[in-house]
Amino acid sequence: MPVPKGAISRPAACARAAARPRRSAGRTVCYLPAVPREYLRRLSDAIVHAQRPIRVLRAINWAPEVHARFFRHGARELPRPEYPALGFDTEAKVKELRELRRRIRGRNPVEDLLRQKCDEFILLAQLLAARGSRRFYELSRRVYGDPRDRFPDHNVDNLGIARMWASRPRARDEEQVFSAEDAASRIAEICAPLLGGHVQVLVRTRLTANAAAGATGITLRKGARFSERQVSAMAHHEGLWHVLTSLNGYRQPVLTVLGVGLPRHTESQEGGGIVAEFLTGYITDERYIELGERTIAIDMAARGADFLEVYRYLLARFPPEKAALMSERVFRGGLLEGGAPFTKDAAYQRGYCRTFNFLRAALEQRDVELVRAFLAGKMSVDDAELVRDLVDEGLCVGPVYLPEWFIDIDRLNAMCTHSVTMNRFSLPSVSRYYARRRGGGATGTLVGRLRESAELEEELAPRPAGDEGDLGE
Question: In the predicted model, is pLDDT for residue 344 greater than 50?
Fold first, then answer.
């Protein structure tokens, strides 16, 4: 039977793959039978079109008057947010997405992802329909996860990571010399050369976060002030990560859905933004502390704490306005009386750890192309392998725009080398060693030096295969 025009032929794809070196013995890179590209492009475009009115943060963020009223009443009464009209019929949107899902008939990983993306947008439409109810929280957990979720590849507690971040030493105060308007100009200046000028930075009033990114633009909160380091961090997080991966995704010849994100992409997107801040050197412990406290606050609300209890907890750690905005992030869309928070911010710890581990695992295997594929759109780290294979087969293309931290690949490789080197040491053991030295003990005597030498040799001794030292410290 002749292959339809524009189709991806399995024999042809396998023949092309056979001409290239295999990545692993016995592994095939051929995912698709004969599937017309035009068919996949139509489905992908239809999903992108159908999701356009579903704007979660825009639909649940509070107006500035809510906070003004809260402080006028002495911060003693629960806020009374009013949410704007959605601008679309949620039942009709769910019906449209379900009908679109039924049109996806193939049984292969790509069409499986498209079906899952329809399911995700259905959940998001239902989430917005459930604003102000407990069902909002239940749907939020299904989309974004829970503060107490564990990692799929390690027995590590997400909330435990958040508590560790929150316990770090406070950063020294940095002078916040940039207004939102000045910061917008500086961010555009940093991003424009790496994004071909395809980024717009605006300042708006109705924004809970200090900054947020859309497909081609960044928005800063009017009235916010920033240090020079924070401005650079926002440029690399919002512009050279969120916007960059959107632009690369929308430039895909077939799977334009990569512009809005494959299923489960939020965790890797938010975590990847923090990784970008770290890799470019613009993060401080103050940032880790805030991210950790957000997740702790979500967990408090999930277990019954109301807005005032969470606000007072955060007020002991942050200025009043910041504590109120952080509390809004927890309660927007949910129940201010407690028991039903918005859980999106709980994704940062998992996303950060999993994205950084993905990068160092790929680089440890000398697989730079896997990292490059990860930059080709918005996706979970779990789908990067599939996208890389689809690039090999010609269904996807590599990224047009690259973040600064990837362009300097030698520096990135060196950071990976540092990470895997230090992973061989147990930090509690190192801490105990120096605690004994500070306490005097046998240090300085021949016996003491011999004991220390033996302990050091034990630390450096080869470990069993697969053991990279203590996990979850």
Answer: yes
